[in-house]
Each structure stands twice: as C-alpha cells, then as structure tokens.
Amino acid sequence: MSKDLREFLSLAKKAGPEFYVEVKKPLKPELEKDVLQLKLYKERGLSPVIYCPVIKGSKLPLVSNIFGSYELLGLALGLEPKKATKSQIFHDYLKKKNELKPVKKVPASQAPVKEVILKGKDVDLGVLPLIYHAERNSKKYVPIGQMVCRNPDTGVLNVGVYRHEVKGKDKLGAMFVPDHHAAYHARRYAELGKPMEVAIFIGHHPAVALGSLFKGAMDVNELEVAGGLLGESLRVTKAETVDLPVPADAEIVIEGVLDPKKMTTDGPFSEWEGYYGIELKCYVINITCITMRKDAIYHDLAPSQIEHTMAAALNQAAAVYDAVKAVVPTVKDVYLPHSGRSNIVGYVQIAKRVPGESNRAGIAAVNALSCLKIAVVVDEDIDIYNEDEVIWAIATRTTPDRDITILPRVLGDPLSPTSYDELRQKRGVMITKMVIDATKPLETPFPTVVTPPKDLWQSMKLDDYIK
Ligand SMILES: Cc1cc2nc3c(=O)[nH]c(=O)nc-3n(C[C@H](O)[C@H](O)[C@H](O)COP(=O)(O)O)c2cc1C
Questions:
Q1: What residues make up the domain containing 119?
Q2: From the CA of 172, how far away is ligand 1's center (Å)?
C-alpha cells in the first residue's frame, strides 16, 4: 500500500496522546479549532495531531497540526518519536531531500482521489470543512493546499504551499510571495499571454508536504523530492480538466485556471510571524473541478501557530546548511528555533578551523533565506538545539564591537515594494540583517571550558546514587 495521510495518522495515533488526540464534540468552523489547538499548546505544552470528526456544516472530518513538533516531522520521515534527536531528524531530512525519485503514473481507476468528481455547476467548496482561523482575517482560507503548476518555458512541474482565500463557491485566491517560483511562473504566463493551470491537493502524507516546501533550484520537480522523503515514488494520475499530474493518494484535489494578468486583494491574514498582516496582492483561481475520496479527510493548519513555521523548519534549515557548506565545509548543524519563527533567526554550528570562517558562515546563512534576519554562529561544543547554550555562547564568546556584523538591506528580501515589503517594514522586520559570531577566537588564547572528567561522567549512573 502506498503511503498517504491515513497511514501517517495511524502511526501518530500509535505513538500516543502526546502525538495524536481526537476531539470529542462537533466544532464550529469559526475560530474554535484554532483556539483549541493553541490552548493545548499553551496550557498543556502539547502539540499533537488534532483529529476533528465533526466540523459543523460539512460531512467531512478535519485534521490539523500534523507538523506540530520536530518529533512529528521525524515521524513523517519514518523516524521513531522520542528516539530520534532534532539533529538526527534534520540530518535524515538533509540526506533524503537529495534522493529524488521519479513519480509513478497510475490510471484514474487506481487513484482513491478520483472516487468523487465534481465538475461544472457541481463545483462547490462548501462541501469542505473550511475554517475561519482568526478574528481579523478577511475570510476563510485553505491554508495548506499544495499547488502544482508548470514552468511555461521548460515544462518542469513546480509544487509549493500557498494560501488560498475562499472567494466564492468556485473561486480561490492564490497569494504567491514574489520571489517564490510560482510567482516567477505566473509572471511568465502573463508575458506569454497564456492562462496558468493549477491543481491544489489537500491531505497527503506529511513527507509529501515537506517535498512541496523544498527550497531549491527552480527546475527541481518537488514531486520527485517528495518521493525521496517518502522513501517511495509518489503515485500520480492525470487531472480531469487541466494538463497536470496530481497525487493519486491525496484526499482532495482542486483543479483550476488563473488569469496571470489580473490581481486582486488577499487578507488581512493571521501571518506566520504571529501578527496580522495587511492586504496583499493575489491571483484568482477559477475552479474547474474538485475530486476527492468518498470519505475525504480535510487537512487544515492553524496559521500563526507553531505548526505553520514548523512545517517549513527543516526545509529552511537545509537551505541555510547548503549555503553555509558551500563556503565553510566544516558546518555541522543548523537550527531555526521556533522562538525565531523557524525563519527569522538561525543557529549555525561550525568546527572553526580558519580565522574569519565564522563570520563567512553567518553571512552565507542570512543570505540563504530572504527572511533570515539574525544568524548566530557557534562552535561545535555548543548544542544549537539548547537555547541556554546558544545564549551562553553569545554572552561569553562575543565581543560586540568586533563580532557583530550588520548587513545592509541590500542582502534582504526582494519582495515587492508595494505589498509584502511594506508590510514587513511596518513590523520593523527585514530592514537589515545581523550576524553574531559567538565562536571562540582562534588567534588569541581563550579560557578553557569547565567540563566534568570524561571517565567519571560516562561511568556514573544516577540511579546508583539517588534514591
Ligand atoms: C503553511 C505554509 C503556508 C505558506 N503560505 C505561502 C503563501 O501563501 N505564499 C507563498 O508564496 N509561500 C507560502 N509558503 C512558503 C512556500 O510554500 C515555500 O516557500 C515554497 O518552497 C515555495 O515554493 P516555490 O518557490 O516553488 O514557489 C507557505 C509555507 C507554509 C509552510
């Protein structure tokens, strides 16, 4: 059997209540699910997959928070929760993201996502348990659809996660950040005077989403990255009304066409940084068909909560790791902590051997991602997954006037000055970037770290000493 959302949900359930909970009463589609998700996190310290059998107004169940923690990301990669460390999960991702697997084409008869086909006047997004996520959001959103489109010049497929404001029973918005590949494709379709066909799939094994979120060259087909992360070729089948393949084992597929010359507004929206954003520009998708399983499970995500940034944590850290490795071969590990929204702050661990290498590593890191504002570079004895140790390294190894480098905005994001950029400037984000070199200097003597004697540390068993 091929891997899909259902298989993942049963693994999470088996892993225990820390990883999977089921809601015991019907939920309103307005706000209730997201408040519940946040309460679990803030009041109980839990971030499990949340299965909601009933969302009022829809016949379909909903699942949320499938990227709620590093452990769940590890489970998506096939690693056992509680056994794999964050570093092991990250290095497993680093390896598998490069093991591209070609897709496996299957006929519609073998594709569960074709069990129900709604075309023409039957197209109605109202069948889905769509959620209104936050009080000041403009509308309901599809927050974790994975959109397939085609590079009009090379024919190579592109997949990414973009938010889709619900604009009517057969209309969705599509907000592409201007430096994301989908935006390049949309602009090119506009130049060519052609419509852009898209297919959004919702609900699949989370390894597929990690593939969709892959940060790499434009002409890498993310469906093949997904295969590497899944550990098997992704099964695809032909879409009904557009010339695109869609994952056969997805829960739901929404097909449509967008006019790349026309834009309208999206938002305000509860953004991943934890603030409401201002109105942005977006395209409009005219939906031509919805296909789904008979008992489809709708996959939702709480924007502005931990799962949003966690979903992209491995991909973003990998982009930083690869960029640093290109200039500093001794890079060991990279972590984008949730405190920095897994995107704005990055910790880079290197085995420094050459003076100045740490600063180079930091500059490469902030340059790797448009949103990465602060890079902290530490030595190999600092555990980057422990923020106490990172702050200790800054406190004791950084001489501010020498070791902090402020980079001008020129290295910042290339987002449109009329929309997203303005939003960021209002929040004071992304004006300049900063590298904090928290490594020990190589050129001058540095105090020795106090460490316990190795033999005694290894041989001592606490149970032998403490009742
Ligand atoms: C939950 C979630 C929501 C996202 N929403 C958007 C979005 O609305 N627009 C966008 O351009 N990128 C969004 N992203 C980021 C892109 O999916 C990601 O950067 C992807 O790699 C872009 O692919 P592309 O460069 O191939 O277009 C989102 C990421 C996550 C995890």
A1: 86-298
A2: 16
